[in-house]
């Protein structure tokens, strides 16, 4: 089903006109949940663009134009070092984004230097909505499978090797009544590695997506099983269940 982006119609018109105002822009696309699934009335609009020359100049020009043309409430600009080849910001088109009594209007914008070869893996990112690419620079192509497989193998090996140490760290924090530490360690060593194993097993192309999109990426009912292991009053029971599930998946993967 095609996502209904109508509440962003004014934004889409501006995005389509961007290259006329910022000629350095070579490719402009919409991606994220608008094209991968899961889009709803509280989704932000993910915008990615690539440019020739200095990405900071293009980024500054785009942000200035958005401020001039749209009603911007506030902007969160990520640190310069977040993207070695570009800049990213979140542009709020209404106050108090956490007020979900009305549809969300929020832009996630990334602008980078166009690489020598620009590719996008549709298994990971969906098929983008291309707003500007007159030279056909964007190639829809799977990422290097050998490299991803090596990363997946390393993740499985590390989870297996760390298994006993991880359980000790969680149980020790619980035994000491260090609730904050136990909660953090439980998520880091019990839940998150389990989810990575499940992703490797069921959606290997998105093995590194963490706790996001569990309902769309994992088999039916599995997200609810994971959520039942999130921190709660019986944390020790949940931790043991998470590690037991890790053991099961590790056996299946081996």
Description:
This protein is an alpha/beta fold and 254 residues long. The protein has 2 domains: 6-140, Beta Polymerase, domain 2, CATH 3.30.460.10; 145-253. It has 9 helices and 8 strands. It has helices at residues 9-21, 33-36, 55-69, 122-125, 145-175, 179-202, 214-217, 222-227, 235-253; strands at 25-31, 45-51, 74-77, 86-92, 106-113, 118-120, 129-132, 138-140. The strands form 2 sheets. The protein has a 6-stranded mixed sheet. Strands 6-8 form a two-stranded parallel sheet. The radius of gyration is 21 Å and the shape is globular. It starts with 8 loop residues before the first helix and ends with a helix. The model has no long low-confidence stretch (mean pLDDT 96).
The CATH topology of the largest domain? Beta Polymerase, domain 2
Mean pLDDT: 96
Number of strands: 8
Name the shape in a single word.
globular
Sheet-strand content, in percent, reads 15-25%
CATH superfamily of the largest domain: Beta Polymerase, domain 2
Helix content: 40-55%
Key words describing this protein structure:
254 residues, Beta Polymerase, domain 2, single chain, six-stranded mixed β-sheet, 2 domains, alpha/beta, two-stranded parallel sheet
Set down the secondary structure blueprint.
Blueprint: H1 9-21, E1 25-31, H2 33-36, E2 45-51, H3 55-69, E3 74-77, E4 86-92, E5 106-113, E6 118-120, H4 122-125, E7 129-132, E8 138-140, H5 145-175, H6 179-202, H7 214-217, H8 222-227, H9 235-253
């Amino acid at each position: 089903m095609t996502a209904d982006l109508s509440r962003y119609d004014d934004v889409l018109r501006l995005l389509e006109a961007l290259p006329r105002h910022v000629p350095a822009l070579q490719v402009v696309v919409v991606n994220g949940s608008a094209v991968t699934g899961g889009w709803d009335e509280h989704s932000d609009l993910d915008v990615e663009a690539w440019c020739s020359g200095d990405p900071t100049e293009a980024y500054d020009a785009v942000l200035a134009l958005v401020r001039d043309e749209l009603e911007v409430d506030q902007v969160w600009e990520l640190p310069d070092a977040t993207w070695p080849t570009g800049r990213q910001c979140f542009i709020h088109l209404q106050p108090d984004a956490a007020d979900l009594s009305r549809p969300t209007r929020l832009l996630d914008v990334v602008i980078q230097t166009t690489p020598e070869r620009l590719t996008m893996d549709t298994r990971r990112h969906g098929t983008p909505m291309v707003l500007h690419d007159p030279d056909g620079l964007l190639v829809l192509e799977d990422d290097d499978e050998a490299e991803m497989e090596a990363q997946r193998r390393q993740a499985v090996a590390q989870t297996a090797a760390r298994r006993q140490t991880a359980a000790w760290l969680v149980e020790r924090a619980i035994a000491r009544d260090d609730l904050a530490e136990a909660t953090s360690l439980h998520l880091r060593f019990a839940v998150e590695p389990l989810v990575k194993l499940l992703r490797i097993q069921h959606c290997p192309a998105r093995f590194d997506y963490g706790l996001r999109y569990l309902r769309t990426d994992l088999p039916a009912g599995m997200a609810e099983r994971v959520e039942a292991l999130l921190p709660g009053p019986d944390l020790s029971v949940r931790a043991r269940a998470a590690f037991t599930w890790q053991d099961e998946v590790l056996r299946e993967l081996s």
